[in-house]
Amino acid sequence: MSSLSEFAYINICEIHVNITGCDIGFYGENCTKCPDNCLNDDCRFQIGHCFDCIDGFNGDMCEECSFTDYGPNCNTSCSKDCQHGLCNHTTGHCLACAEDRFGNLCENKLPANGGY
After folding, report:
1. C-alpha 7: how far from its chain's center?
2. CA dihedral defined by 15, 37, 61, 43, rounded to 10 degrees?
3. Of 45, 63, 97, 106, which has the fewest Cβ atoms less than 10 A away?
């Protein structure tokens, strides 16, 4: 009769294997470059979809956020005080402010008397 040793163990790990022959940052049969906005320039070796995107971009191919959203995965809406709700897709800074507002996020209000 056999028994297991209390000192026996198995160490299992996962590794990234590149079976296409392309360097990291490239995919497919022709080793096409991964989309520019993939985080760490890394994408799925079969079809080129990004694992994750740099801030200001989202989707499988890391397209730019709309002008009304910004940040990681485009999850943050631009300030309501941005003119027309439009801001930079990376920083969230307003492209322009509503008439009585100022600041990067149009967070400041001009005095009613114009400061006089």
Report:
1. 45
2. -10
3. 63
Q: Are residues 36 and 81 in the same domain?
A: no
- Please indicate, yes or no, whether residues 54 and 70 belong to a single structural domain of this protein: no
What pTM does this model have?
A: 0.66
Establish if 1 belongs to a structural domain: no
Cβ-contact 69, 82 below 8 angstroms:
no
46 and 27: one domain?
yes
DSSP per-residue letters across 19-79? -SSPPTTEETTTTEEPPTTBGGG-B-TTT--BSSB-TTEETTTTEEPPTTEESGGG-EEPP
